[in-house]
Every structure is written in structure tokens, then in C-alpha cells.
Amino acid sequence: MTISESDRLHSQLSRFEDMFPGYRTEIVEGAIVMSPVKPHHNETIWEVRNALKAQLSKEWGFISDVAVPFDADNEFCPDLAVIPKAEVAKNLSAYAPDLIELAIEVVSPSSVRNDYEVKDRAYARRGIPHYLIFDPYKAHCVTLWNPGPEGYRGRDTIPYGTTVAVNTDIGKLSVDTAGLPVDPSAT
Q1: Using CA atoms, how far apart are residues 37 and 21, in angstroms rounded to an integer?
Q2: How far is CA 85 from each of CA 62, 75, 99, 116, rounded to the nearest angstrom?
Q3: Are 88 and 58 in contact (CB under 8 A)?
Q4: What value does the CA radius of gyration of the chain take, rounded to a whole number of Å?
Q5: In order along the chain (187 residues), what is the average pLDDT of each group of 10 residues?
Q6: What is the pLDDT of residue 65?
Q7: Which residues contact 22 (CB under 8 A, 6 or more apart)?
Q8: Which end of the chain lies in a sparser environment, N or C, as judged by fewer CB atoms within 10 Å?
């Protein structure tokens, strides 16, 4: 799938988002997936973005909920992704996965399998060096690195209340998780 084909498809997905406010739409394994968005989801994204922004050089920026076509069956919209700032400045509706240095997803009840399994394999296969999963329902962050054909070969689970640190090619990045929101049902 080329980016231009993705642009066309994403504009069709945008109509679903307009029809169902409060839901995020992606194509995962060939199916249209709509996930409800809750306040803890967005607050986690903002907190993580703010923490990382202060640590990134001026050459790097963020995309959030923007289409990233992987193949004919998967067009993800990462909650947050670090890509070159020159690419962000183009203000496109879709970006190539090869631009992503760090992908970040925040788990929602309907995205558990996609975030932990499907995107683990897809992001790793495309060589995205680092992937972070923040989970307000389990009150932890999973860091993934060393991408391989079946997923990431390295992973750590870090409980909220501590600092998550990732050594990337663009520098060491860290997020203090002590203030991240946790769902009241978390165990």
C-alpha cells in the first residue's frame, strides 16, 4: 500500500470517526477497529509527550493518531510516535513506518490484543527500534526493543511509580510514571 492509497483510505476512515465521536479508528489485520477513548488515555499521551519533548533534540518531533500504513491489512495510528521533525513539518495525513524511532501506545479496554500482540509483531517486523506500551489498567509500562521477525526480543515490564528509561539512537529518554493516571479497576 502506498501512502497515496493510504491517504484515500484514511479519509474514508475519518468519516467513521466523525460519525462516532469519542472513538479512534484504525485498520488492524484487515478489519476496521474502533476504540473508545477515555480521559486516562489522552492524559497518559499528553504526560508522556511532555516528558519526552523536553528530552528530544530539535531534530525530532511527534505524530499522534496519524495514519501509518504497514501493509494492505494494517494501517495503524500510533498514540504517539517520534519521527524526524522535518517530516512532521510536512503535515501529512499518513507517514511511512520507517520514520519511527519510538512508537508509543496507551492501552484501552478494546486495544489490549492489538497493542500487546499485533503491534508488537508489526512494529518489530518493520524495524521500529523501540516500542513502549503504557497500560493504565495494569498500572505498568512495557518497554520493547531489539526488533525481530516475530516481535521484539527484549522486553521489560515496569510498574507505575518508577521511571521508565529507554536507550535509543537519539539519546536516553525517560518518563516518570508516578503521576500517570491509573484506572480505578486496576489491580
Answers
A1: 9
A2: 7, 21, 10, 27
A3: no
A4: 16
A5: 49 55 66 68 93 97 92 89 98 94 93 94 97 97 97 97 97 97 85
A6: 84
A7: 36, 37
A8: C
Q: What is the pLDDT of residue 14?
A: 58
Which residues of the chain form beta strands (DSSP E)?
A: 23-28, 31-36, 60-63, 68-71, 74-76, 80-84, 102-106, 130-135, 140-148, 151-159, 163-168, 171-176
pTM of the model: 0.82
The residue type of 64 is S
Give residue 155's Cα distance to chain centre: 16
Alpha-carbon span 58 to 80, nearest angstrom: 17
pLDDT of residue 2: 47
Residue 156: the pLDDT is 98
Block residue for cell numbers 508509543: 104
Pairing state of beta strands 74-76 and 68-71? antiparallel
Whether residue 60 contacts residue 52, with contact meaning beta carbons closer than 8 Å, is answered with no
Q: How many CA atoms lie within 13 A of 1 on its CB side?
A: 23
